[in-house]
Design goal:
The complex is a heterodimer of chains A (113) and B (115).
Chain A (H helix, E strand, L loop, with lengths): L3 E2 L4 E5 L4 E7 L6 E7 L6 E7 L4 E4 L2 E6 L4 E6 L8 E8 L8 E2 L3 E6 L1
Parallel strand pairs in A: 2-11
Antiparallel strand pairs in A: 1-3, 3-8, 4-5, 4-9, 6-7, 7-8, 9-10, 9-11
Chain B lengths: L3 E4 L2 E4 L5 E7 L6 E7 L5 E8 L5 E2 L8 E7 L2 E6 L8 E8 L7 E2 L3 E5 L1
Parallel strand pairs in B: 2-11
Antiparallel strand pairs in B: 1-3, 3-8, 4-5, 4-9, 5-6, 7-8, 9-10, 9-11
Classes of the chains: A mainly beta (113), B mainly beta (115).
Chain lengths: 113, 115
């Protein structure tokens, strides 16, 4: 049973527009959520995170929104740039489970110039 | 962010041999290191968790005698794939964190190809 799901395997966006990547989770014990960006043949790079006590966290062009009641989070990238093209993984952890990360399946973002 | 390195970045070996992959945290002390495996076009799958100075905890389905993990110091963990077979060919990624509440930082990964 996948506890973290990214239902869109891919997303194509025009440069300068907003990219919205979605993530759903089922485990109500998750209290910390992260987004990682991954290029082929490289390890994931931490982008941004959010605690369950917040509903929004912003860092430059990246904003993560958390809707706890819907068990849904999203990553907004605006404006999107061609260099943002990568696979984005959302991950979740629970403090009572040693903060082990559970990853979603990833969404491949392609930003067209 | 913190820096985690892996060595080697790419290794090709013959079936039946053993391969050791190193994971180092370069600018922080990692009390916990994690080893992941990624198959093509799939997500990261956690293989095991290692805490410095203690035995690794393996995820269900991961053979601990095949994937030997050592976390001898706060900056180094090693994964040894013993008696490698072609089906062990994969991308292996480590990550490290300083404390339980800290962010995990990932290494660049190691591409293992077993002929």
């Amino acid at each position: 049973d996948q506890q973290v799901k990214q239902n869109s395997p891919s997303l194509s966006v025009q440069e300068g527009r907003i990219s919205i990547l979605n993530c759903d989770y089922t485990n109500s014990m998750f209290d910390y959520f992260l987004w990682y960006k991954k290029y082929p043949a490289e390890g994931p790079t931490f982008l941004i995170s959010i605690s369950s006590i917040k509903d929004k966290n912003e860092d430059g062009r990246f904003t993560v929104f958390l809707n706890k009641s819907a068990k849904h989070l999203s990553l907004h990238i605006v404006p999107s740039q061609p260099g943002d093209s990568a696979v984005y993984f959302c991950a979740a952890s629970a403090n009572n489970a040693g903060n082990m990360l559970t990853f979603g399946g990833g969404t491949r973002l392609m930003v067209k110039p | 962010g913190a820096v985690v390195s892996q060595h080697p970045s790419r290794v090709i070996c013959k079936s039946g041999t053993s391969v050791k992959i190193e994971c180092r945290s370069l600018d922080f002390q990692a009390t916990t290191m994690f080893w992941y495996r990624q198959f093509p076009k799939q997500s990261l799958m956690l293989m095991a968790t290692s805490n410095e100075g203690s035995k690794a905890t393996y995820e269900q389905g991961v053979e601990k005698d095949k994937f030997l993990i050592n976390h001898a110091s706060l900056t180094l963990s090693t994964l040894t794939v013993t008696s490698a077979h072609p089906e062990d060919s994969s991308f292996y990624i480590c990550s490290a964190r300083q404390g339980t509440l800290d962010t995990q930082y990932f290494g660049p990964g190691t591409r293992l190809t077993v002929l």
